[in-house]
Amino acid sequence: MKIAVTGATGTQGGAVARLLTERGHEVRRVTRNPKHPDDVHGDFDNPDSLEQAFADVDGLFLMTPLSGPSEASQGKAAVDAARHVPHVVFTSATNADRGTGIPHFDTKAEIERHLAAVHPHWTVLGPAAFMSNKGFVALPIPPTLKLHLIAPEDIAAMAVLAFEQPARFHNRRVDIASDQLTGPEMAAIRGTEFVEYSLAQAETYSPDLAAMFRYFTETGLDLDIPALHAELPEIAWHSYANWVTGRA
Ligand SMILES: NC(=O)c1ccc[n+]([C@@H]2O[C@H](COP(=O)([O-])OP(=O)(O)OC[C@H]3O[C@@H](n4cnc5c(N)ncnc54)[C@H](OP(=O)(O)O)[C@@H]3O)[C@@H](O)[C@H]2O)c1
């Protein structure tokens, strides 16, 4: 298959592009600054460039950059530019479709609704917090809260499975996580101490992220990891310990 991958120079798209290539698919890496032989120019601020980047492919891996309120219009324009692409796999966030009130989740929900309304064949992935995030040992969450986490490689495995088994994931939304740990458990794996800071402090640098951590703490994500892994045994889900050790 020939697959266009947005965000291919970033965490999710990079992992997806690498796995697609490993599995023998043809990859079109969409970036604002083409450098790699598989790169094509595409800019979320210029839907015409996306239309060209998405021409004549069998599938599109669509991520949206964190760009505040404009994420929704950029994402919806990207969906429109992909109207001829046979299968769009959009990566959103866990429980983004639940009306969480978290600004960067609600923008993704708007893109999800648009995709489902206008495209005949889509899959939405709802990844949890990335294991690759920096600063996981200092968080505005209580030390007893177990945070849902996902390895970027597991997002890629899920996306590639969706492209390779389109009927199984036809017009489905799947929230995905690899493991679930408390801050102190994550810190112990990293050989350090967990530092809890307040949501008021988090507000001062990002009201959006503070809203997300408040939701995680007060409502909690609805994602049953054992049930998910039982449904998708072909994915070699990483534990956080294995993922960190693999990068040591
Ligand atoms: N971090 C988490 O825990 C987490 C969890 C769930 C969901 N998410 C979501 O994941 C998304 C970010 O994904 P990521 O972490 O994989 O990305 P990333 O590593 O931050 O990389 C950003 C990517 O976006 C591309 N990009 C930025 N602006 C662009 C534009 N105007 N046009 C075209 N491409 C553009 C960049 O490509 P070029 O610079 O090469 O153009 C780059 O490949 C966000 O929407 C975030 O909310 C994150």
UniProtKB/TrEMBL annotation:
<dbReference type="InterPro" id="IPR051164">
    <property type="entry name" value="NmrA-like_oxidored"/>
</dbReference>
<feature type="domain" description="NmrA-like">
    <location>
        <begin position="2"/>
        <end position="189"/>
    </location>
</feature>
<keyword id="KW-0521">NADP</keyword>
<comment type="similarity">
    <text>Belongs to the NmrA-type oxidoreductase family.</text>
</comment>
<dbReference type="Pfam" id="PF05368">
    <property type="entry name" value="NmrA"/>
</dbReference>
<dbReference type="InterPro" id="IPR008030">
    <property type="entry name" value="NmrA-like"/>
</dbReference>
<dbReference type="InterPro" id="IPR036291">
    <property type="entry name" value="NAD(P)-bd_dom_sf"/>
</dbReference>
<protein>
    <recommendedName>
        <fullName>NmrA-like domain-containing protein</fullName>
    </recommendedName>
</protein>
